[in-house]
Specification:
Layout lengths: L1 H13 L16 H14 L5 E3 L3 H14 L8 E5 L2 H6 L5 E4 L2 H18 L21 E3 L12
Parallel strand pairs: 1-2, 2-3
Antiparallel strand pairs: 3-4
Helix pairs in contact: 2-3
């Protein structure tokens, strides 16, 4: 979550967009939190034209909140979600999402686990090195749906 927030802030800065704290809703990774987040942000900022939601449960909640409030996507509000390409295809309009390579994540996790199982033992200093942390970055992709309005070419 911290890396996603950092990426959001960097993208805003790079594009000259003010990244004010009251434009950010910190939820608890639940559907209800996504619904509450979209309602809260729209009440605080009725001029808001786009939202990026950082996990799929909150994305589901935001879509529920938008639908129940009669918010037209993407006409009134562009939406970009995170993960769950099946859900992205199931809603109307089809959701634009940031997608993680879940198969590759699983493969890397299994590879590391098997490697660590093979390394279990005691190092020269008497400590196990099987629990050493590693950070592996895998690329994401944007799966374009129809939930983002191109305001530069809007009629």
């Amino acid at each position: 979550a911290r890396q996603r927030m950092r990426g959001y802030r960097e993208a805003c800065e790079k594009n000259g967009i003010v990244c004010a704290e009251d434009y950010i809703f910190h939820g608890d990774d639940s559907i209800e939190s996504g619904t509450c987040g979209i309602e809260t942000l729209r009440q605080m900022h009725p001029e808001m034209t786009a939202v990026v939601i950082s996990n799929y449960r909150m994305t589901i909640g935001a879509m529920i909140g938008a639908n129940e409030s009669g918010i037209e996507i993407p006409g009134e509000l562009s939406v970009v979600g995170f993960d769950n390409p099946q859900f992205a295809r199931a809603v109307h309009p089809k959701l634009t999402i940031i997608n993680q390579p879940v198969d590759e994540i699983g493969e890397k996790a299994a590879e590391i686990m098997l490697q660590r199982l093979g390394e279990i033992g005691v190092a020269e200093n008497g400590e196990s090195d099987a629990s050493a942390r590693r950070h592996i970055w895998l690329g994401t992709t944007i799966l374009e749906g129809r939930s983002v309005l191109d305001r530069n070419n809007a009629e």
